Structures are given as C-alpha cells and as structure tokens.
Amino acid sequence: MHDRLGEVEGVRAFVLAGEVVLTQQDIRELQSAMSSVATGIRVLLERTGLETGDLEEVMLAGSFGSSIDPESARVIGLVPPVPVEKIRFVGNVAAEGAKMSLLSFRERRVACDLKSRVEYVELSARRDFNELFVAGVRFPELTALS
To answer: Are 15 and 21 in contact (CB under 8 A)?
Structure first.
C-alpha cells in the first residue's frame, strides 16, 4: 500500500492505477457534492412530510448520475439508504424534456401544467443550511447500511 503513495504537482496523492490518482482535494469535492445532494433530499423530505422509506424510486440524472455505480452511491451517502433496486439513472432529462416540449404541443402543455405545481426551494436561505450541509459532509458508517 505504501508504494501507492506519491505526489502530483506537489500534492500528496494515492495512485489508483497508472496515472490515475486520488488527492485530498478530490475527496473534498466528492464530500461537497455528496452533502449538497443529501441536504437537498433531506430538506425536500422534511417539506413533504415524507421519510426515506416512503421513496418509491431515486432517480439520478445527467452525465454525473450515469457514471456512478448505484451501490457505491448508496454506500457513500450520495443517495438515501434505499434498496439499490430503487436507484435508477434517467439520463439527460433536462435536454430530453426540452426536446419533447419543442416537438409536441401536448408535452408543452404538460410541462406548463407541471411548472405551475412545482415549488422552488432555496436551500442556502434556510437558517439551518450550514448545519445540515456540514452534517452531510461525513461519509456514513458502513455498518449503518447493512
């Protein structure tokens, strides 16, 4: 294991394979992304009166979502601790939805109707945002996921 420790541009790094390395900055960025998602989910569950067990499905969108293993996303706390079968990748739904709205009057009406029922939630405006965000930075204990 010691032979995998090194430096890249003056920064300590762990060599994963060849020139692929993991740095402390990489871990911090993952923790920040993970906490942002976890905080958003926590706030939305709270606002709707739902609990994690009530979730029928967890959908991950975009290129980021499509490159993550569902079990790994669950283990590190990126998604709520739901059975892995409930985690689904849906691709680039923003672009797909825009395309559908442009090509179909019916789909455009559906989108407009949905827009009137969606509520924007500004996470950073919450008084407890920093507290929730900091709490979400930690990786969950592996035993908590068993």
So the answer is: yes
